Amino acid sequence: MDQFDPRDEAPDSHALTDSPENHRNGLPPPPTPSNFYKDFVQFAIFLGVVLIPVYTSFDDMAEGLQGFISEYIVPYRDGPMSEPIGYTVNKNVARTIVFVLLFAGFTVVFLIRHTFRTTPMGQNSRDHLAIVDEAILEEKNEQIRQLRQKLKNDMIILRTVHNQIYGDNRPRLNYSSVKGVYRVNANGDLEVHKEITVKADDKEGFLWTFYAAGDQYSKPLEEVADLNFSVAALDDDTSVQYITIVDEGLKKQFVIYFLPLLQPGETRSFTLYYQWPGILLKLLETGTVSYDWQNRAPTTGMPGDFSAEWIFDEALGHVECHNTGSKPAGLKLYNVDESQGSRWVFEGEQVALGNTPYELTFFAPDLPANNDREGR
Question: Which segments show compositional bias classed as Basic and acidic residues (predicted)?
């Protein structure tokens, strides 16, 4: 996925030199470009040697040129005794004409010769650059593969350390508020914005775990970076950091650390964002999909404010939503304005949040998948 483009390198980072390293890497030596100025000097010397005698020594050229003109070009007078008009040609004129003709001929020969010398050399240069670029590309891709493997190994180490330190995997934070906005586009992509407020119980709290997972219809994500996951603290003088402990195609899991740690009874607010392309492809292919979640907490049923707003692209048509999970008192599900697509709100004040399993099931009757199934 991450391919290296040699054009991203600095212009002089890979100079083309005929070095032993090139030969060790199996690269041919770079071609030597043709030197135009060197060829031109040679041409000028050759031209001077040939033309100077023409201009200084060939005195009979004037007579030859004069005879040619008198014989073939000069018109005759009318009448039986017509004779050709006589012309005389200056010797310097004859020499100049010959000089110009020879100079033009030699110039054409020089240009043709230089063109034939440089064209194959230019092609060789391009071939050499292509070979060098391919070698650089393979080298960088190998470095990327090694780096990926190292990151996966480091992730395994982090997960092992985390499990040894917190082997009981016991949640240590309750929820005061959980609010989320879920946007689904026509391609089955899901974009999630959540704002969460947690509260430490009678002990200090400093971490919170979160994971996102798809099903068999979902598009796997090759790298955790493809999830665009991020968290940010909302309280002054605090921060949140996270590490990835699971990076599988259909599951990404994170451990989020609060800095400084929460004192007993202290609350902390933060935002969470991620975007998973194709996680809800099941809705497009089968016409229905379920989405479930559970807020693990040390206190079961501890009340808090909850809100989940689901917004579907209008290209999906009308989307139905049903609560197929827990139905605690005070929690309601309703549909709102559909002028720009279906929009469902699932919310309640001071409802049971801790360790309560929730599930919403969506049904899109306008999608072709449902129409095909109903026709069979």
Answer: 1-12
